Amino acid sequence: MKKKIFKFLEINVAPFILQLLVRFISLTNKKIYHTPLTFNNNENFIASMWHGDLLMQPYNYKNFKSHGTVKGMISEHRDGEAIRKTVEYLGIGSLSGSSTRGGVKALIGAIKSLKNGTDIAITPDGPKGPIYNVADGVVMIAQKTNKRILPFSCVPSKYWKINSWDKFIIPKPFGKIDFYIGEPIDVTGMTMQDSKDLIYNKMNENQLTK
To answer: Which of 112-122 are b and which e, b meaning 16 or more Cβ less than 10 Å from the residue's Cβ?
Structure first.
């Protein structure tokens, strides 16, 4: 019984509370957005962000593309279900599956969504790391669809860093948050390793000190 209650709270109550926290952080921080100069946001794309940096990214996306639709690739694990419900409160859709669970289904879903005009959000080092490691999936999706990758990052002036594998960042209230979207990354015709190296370097151009 205790396990059932805990599972219910984790999946149904915690996401509601977490999205309220995210909204409160957003409301109490000064937000500054830095967007790419050479990208037409009528084009759909792959939003790429490190797993530990994803909490506030719905605001980054919605500022850049208020009319857009985006789906995040989220693990089928129980933790993924809680994340899925949290981001749905914030206007972000989801695709079930990750590199560790439901990978093929997620890959097919992402490709179909991009071809249908929906943006995709992915954490290349999720859901379990290693931290700051670019997995193959983001490259495969980009090359299969000929879509470009935009690196997303969030740099708060004050924050808590969770002692977790991904060094998860929670901005503190009453500070400033700089939101960055880097210039588009095109990996068409590149080898897997060269693509991953390029994505890694571009994603770390505007990032908190590791």
So the answer is: ebbeeebbbbb
Q: Cα 83 vs. chain centroid, distance in angstroms? A: 11
CB atoms within 10 A of CB 97: 22
Domain range summary for the chain, segments of one domain joined by +: 2-203
> How far is residue 143's CA from residue 82's CA, in Å, rounded to a whole number?
30
pLDDT in tens, 22-42: 999 999 999 999 999 989 888
The residues, ordered by sequence, that sit 6+ positions from 17 with a Cβ below 8 Å of its Cβ are: none
DSSP-derived 3-state class of residue 5: helix
Transcribe 72-122 into DSSP letters.
Answer: EEE-SSHHHHHHHHHHHHTT-EEEE--SSSSHHHHHHHHHHHHHTT-EEEE
Q: How far is Cα of residue 175 from the mean position of the Cα atoms in its chain?
A: 22
**With left for phi above 0 and alpha for psi between -120 and 50, is residue 167 left, alpha or beta?**
left
pLDDT, tens digit (0-9, with 9 covering 90-100), for 45-104: 999 999 999 999 999 999 999 999 999 988 666 566 778 888 899 999 988 655 555 568
Angstrom CA distances, 35 to 14, 61, 65, 110, 184, stand at 32, 10, 11, 24, 10
